[in-house]
Amino acid sequence: MKASAQSMGSSYETAIGIKFWPAAVSVKHFFSDDVAVEGLLNFWDRGFRVTGLYEIHGAISDIEGFRWYVGPGAHIGVYNDNYYHGHQYNNGALSLGVDGVAGVEYKFKGAPIQISADIQPYLELLSHPYIDVWGGIGVRYTF
């Protein structure tokens, strides 16, 4: 992949943008045509979380710019209020766990825009472990 000020083709090297559910700033960088790392900084009503995801990508059919991705990851964060998820988490309680991701993305040819939709199941490990699912819709500027 060729780096430039913006990616106008159907592929890209790096993208930055936002993801909805919960709200997150997203940065994604490809190390090869089919391997990327994505970082998420989530802000939600009960705290914040930093998540790192290792993503393997593959083409979908013959649609240029349309790909699937899957991979593992991990998160760390802090609860900022008394959060109840089957058990009480106090203000300042640490959030730590393992994540997964599965989704699809499309890079618009002729525009530096990429969109994605995914699910991100996770296992919270500290205090009172639980399983939940995040995910959502992402919009990123590519370069």
Describe this structure in words.
- The protein has 143 residues and is mostly beta strands.
- The chain has a single domain, classed as Porin (Beta Barrel), CATH 2.40.160.
- It is built from no helices and 10 strands.
- The strands form 2 sheets. Strands 1-2-3-4-5-8-9-10 form an 8-stranded antiparallel beta barrel.
- A hairpin with a 2-residue loop joins strand 3 and strand 4.
Describe the structure concisely for a colleague.
0% of the residues lie in helices and 67% in strands. With 143 residues, it is an all-beta fold.
Major sheet summary line: 8 strands, antiparallel, barrel
The number of helices is: 0
Which structural class should the secondary elements be placed in?
mainly beta
Count of the domains = 1
Provide the helix percentage. under 10%
Task: Report the β-strand fraction as a percent range.
Answer: over 45%
Give a count of the beta strands, DSSP E runs of length 2 or more.
Answer: 10
- Average of the residue pLDDT scores: 90
Strand order of the largest sheet: 1-2-3-4-5-8-9-10
CATH topology assignment: Porin
From the N-terminal CA to the C-terminal CA, the straight-line distance is 10 Å
